[in-house]
Write a structure and sequence with these properties.
29% helix; 493 residues; alpha+beta; binds flavin-adenine dinucleotide; globular; five-stranded parallel sheet; five-stranded mixed sheet
């Protein structure tokens, strides 16, 4: 839907975009044509901030922390009861803080994502909540390090960081609309059990993964539906060492990394198995339920993120299609645990210790930004005059890798939502090309984008300017002060 269509829908509902409020997902409203209830207008209490960050997930916690640390009065709106998002619910580990030095002999090892993302890992290490940056000993054409996390400690640690930074952290709070003044967002509508409120701010960051705020604000977007959705499970009462022996005895190990597990260094923390070599019953069963074998762990008796993938026929913004998928995925989870119990030594008494609270998606809405990172930008290791971070990992490695084990830059212009005066975007909602997105959507890249957008939003608020009027040199200087790593020299003011 483009801005014109969106505005037309809003006018149909008598809402209007000029100093108006867009509060509903128009596609869902239109699912029952001809039958409408006209909601009476309400007076909402107003709270005022410098920066509002929508979505407290992978990118959002970093964005809000960065904004608050740079002096902005910041609110974070998160619908769940905790921060963390997909990093605590979907993936197997964090990819990747480093360049791909292992796959390119002779290339210097360097940590390319630092700043707040690294601080989270430092804090997790202190509470036994991560494997640390565990180097891959097998399958290092894919990644050089794997950083596994204890998902529950991640939620706590990031929550504490937000509060320490002074972020007004609104969990259990839904972002339900945008209040527009032309192309400028004046405020957002939030809903919680404390009621419906308006949060006004000078600058906004959309980190909702689905681009909810951008869509409410009337930005252009599409819904590519180009990935499987997934619900992943944590399996407890298992032995990772016996699982390792099982995979090894079938010559099935494709990825392996050693790091800290249950307080001891040098332990296996990541394993990927080639199902083709595994017993027929297991292989066939896993195929039927879309099960991926990659697992990580930071505890001796726990596997994280056994994934059950499902390709939906329509975009995951459809409530009813998602409801069907949620049930299918829960049935698949039950089948997955049966397979582990039946075939994998050490897992005879395994059980599901956690599931994702709702299905996860690698891409919901794709939001149009001022620049769209291309596949050749990624693979050629291109850098821009306005880089705000660099990244060096591709999820489809070794098929796709960044040239010579190097990095590419994420430019500031790729994080500015097109057509909106004061809105930035970070996370899985940017980058239209599927194969380029297979790099930019990864956790650590989203975290870096979070730091860039939160910092930029704070500077825009302080300088009282739109996202396009912010001087890149000011943004860069602040990012570098805050330990963000960049590879190119400042070429313009
Ligand atoms: C199944 C799966 C496996 C993956 N595996 C890996 C992997 O192994 N390694 C890796 O690096 N990456 C992996 N990824 C990719 C990576 O995890 C995601 O791309 C990344 O975490 C997305 O971050 P984000 O900040 O965009 O979104 P999220 O982390 O999802 O954050 C969005 C947040 O916004 C909140 N929110 C949404 N809408 C609203 C609203 N209207 N109001 C209030 N709050 C709202 C959500 O609750 C959530 O907390 C995987 C992704 C999936 C889905």
């Amino acid at each position: 839907m483009n801005r014109r269509d969106f505005s037309k829908h809003i006018l149909l509902l008598g809402l209007g975009t000029q100093s108006g409020c867009a509060t509903a997902n128009m596609r869902n409203v239109n699912s029952q044509p001809g039958s409408y209830y006209e909601e009476p207008a309400k007076k909402l209490p107003i709270r005022k901030f410098d920066v509002v960050v929508a979505g407290g997930g992978t990118a959002g916690v970093v964005a809000a922390t960065a904004a608050a640390r740079n002096g902005a009065k910041t609110a974070l709106i998160e619908v769940k009861g905790y921060p963390g998002g997909t990093v605590t619910e979907g993936g197997t580990a964090l990819h990747s803080f480093y360049n791909l030095w292992k796959a390119f002999p002779g290339v210097k090892k360097r940590q390319v994502v630092r700043g707040i993302a690294q601080e989270i890992i430092d804090r997790l290490l202190k509470v036994g909540g991560t494997s640390g940056h565990a180097e891959m000993s097998k399958g290092y054409n894919y990644d050089s390090v794997c950083t596994a996390i204890d998902t529950e400690m991640y939620k706590l640690v990031t929550f504490e960081m937000l509060v320490e930074a002074g972020v007004f952290t609104c969990v259990n709070t839904l972002l339900a609309g945008a209040i527009m003044d032309g192309s400028r967002i004046k405020g957002v509508i939030v809903e919680s059990r404390s009621g419906r409120e308006a949060f006004y701010a000078k600058a906004f960051v959309d980190c909702t993964a689905y681009g909810d705020l951008a869509a409410y604000a009337g930005a252009d977007y599409t819904e590519p539906n180009d990935y499987a959705v997934c619900n992943s499970i944590g399996i407890a009462n298992v032995s990772i060492d016996k699982y390792y022996e099982f995979l090894k005895s079938h010559d099935a190990i494709t990825q392996q990394a050693e790091g800290r597990r249950s307080g001891k260094d040098g332990q296996i923390v990541r394993l990927d198995g080639k199902t083709v070599n595994l017993p027929d019953g297991f292989r066939e069963g896993a195929g039927k339920i879309g099960m991926s074998m990659v697992t990580t762990t930071v505890h001796d008796n726990y596997f994280m993120f056994i994934k059950l993938n499902l390709k939906m026929p329509v975009s995951p913004t459809s409530r009813d299609a998602v409801a069907k998928a949620e049930l299918v995925l829960r049935r698949r989870q039950a089948r997955a645990i049966e397979l582990f119990r039946q075939y994998v030594p050490g897992c005879e008494k395994a059980f599901i210790a956690r599931t994702s609270p709702r299905l996860n998606i690698r891409r919901g809405r794709l939001i149009s930004c001022d620049y769209d990172i291309t596949l050749s930008d990624v693979l050629e290791g291109r850098h821009f005059d306005d880089d705000v971070m660099v990244y060096g990992f591709h999820d489809s490695a070794p098929r796709f890798q960044i040239k010579n084990g190097g990095t590419y830059g994420i430019p500031y212009q790729a994080l500015r939502v097109a057509g909106i005066h004061n809105l930035l975007a970070a996370g899985m909602m940017i980058t239209s090309n599927h194969d380029a997105h297979m790099s930019t959507r990864n956790t650590v890249c989203c975290m870096g984008q979070g730091q860039a957008t939160g910092t930029a939003a704070a500077l825009c608020a302080v300088k009282n300017c739109g996202t396009r009027e912010l001087r890149y040199s000011d943004l860069r200087e602040t990012l570098v002060k805050d330990n963000v790593y960049l590879e190119t020299a400042l070429s313009r003011k």
